[in-house]
Amino acid sequence: MKERLKTEDKYSARRNQLFLNIYQRLQYGYERYLQQTRQFDFADMINHATQCVKEITECARGYKYILLDEVQDLSRNRFLLVQAILRKNPGCKLFAVGDDWQSIYRFAGSDLSLIQKFEQFFKLKTRRSFIESTHRFGQPTIKISCNFIQQNPKQSHKKVHNIQDAKTPIYIILNRDRNMKKGQDAESLEIILQSLIAEHGYDALRRKTLQVIARYNHDIGRIESERFSVEARGDGQIYDISWQNPNDIKQKLHLEFCSMHKSKGITRDIVIVLNMNSDLMGMPATRESDPILDAMLAQGESFPFAEERRLFYVAITRAREATYLIANRKNPSPFLFEISNEIKTAYGKLCPRCQTGELIRKHGKHGDFYYCSNYAYGCNYLKKA
Fold this sequence. Notes:
The chain is of the alpha/beta class. It has 3 domains: 10-122, P-loop containing nucleotide triphosphate hydrolases (Rossmann fold, 3-Layer(aba) Sandwich), CATH 3.40.50.300; 136-348, P-loop containing nucleotide triphosphate hydrolases (Rossmann fold), CATH 3.40.50.300; 351-385, no CATH class. The chain has 12 helices and 16 strands. The strands form 5 sheets. It has a 7-stranded mixed β-sheet. A 3-stranded antiparallel β-sheet has the order 14-15-16, with no helix packed on it. A hairpin with a 2-residue loop joins strand 14 (359-364) and strand 15 (367-372). 26% of the residues are buried.
């Protein structure tokens, strides 16, 4: 840690040293507690196992195959364990499955370079095969999500298709009011549920699985209201939501809420994403990691919001039937403009240039055209109707 936090900047050097003084005492105290209570934490289990494989002659011999799942989440210490077992077993074959499009756990120690430079790290003769068919979702989600994630040239390139020719649309719902009042996401969610009842019928809809997700767990507060009751499950990471239809007291729907990270690996019929706003804690979250924290993690990426982009990809590929994205009309996420060049408000289309004004249709001498409602404030967007 001392080596990684070395810097010539005097302010940062002093700040780093103060952090290390605190961190070192906590680290030593924690290690001493584990020794006194004869306990191992998960990282120590991996590290100790690696040490055993290296130092004990007969340990981990006799393996012909190693199967490694979710390799995009591999951390350095787990890599060292796998590497030690391979070296102990010449001729052992490694079969690894992973998806670099879904690497979203850098904060927990995962190192994306381990899958991107797999051959370099494992030093094995390797053949890569792509799984390009999906049973989970169909068009246009396939096209939208693939185009979006591959904007980052460092992500692997694949041509995904659905073998069942399913249809999975993505809808963008902007809150009615330009002011960011509390409860607007709840109002939009209620509008979505009413439209789903009208489309499917209440009896059919309540048999479907409905999930609400957001960037952070605390976003659940955006929909708490008199018609939405929220109750946390035991682990506090998944919430049960009940909604009472104000138009029919006999109609009550049950939904599930969790964070985008928690939703990875889950499939539901209909998924609704809250807080798709351009904000410090929206999507992408623009709050930067502290440089000290960054030094503890795997090397970062140069492409803007690379991991947030992968997290949004995860969010829009959870649904079998439809995905709804809820955002404020005043500050929708820039990701929404990437996946749709015609974001519609309750009154019209949002201007793709300034991203806050609405497109107004007007008749001119050369025909109808659209201009931005922010024309008086400097947005000169024009488009033929």
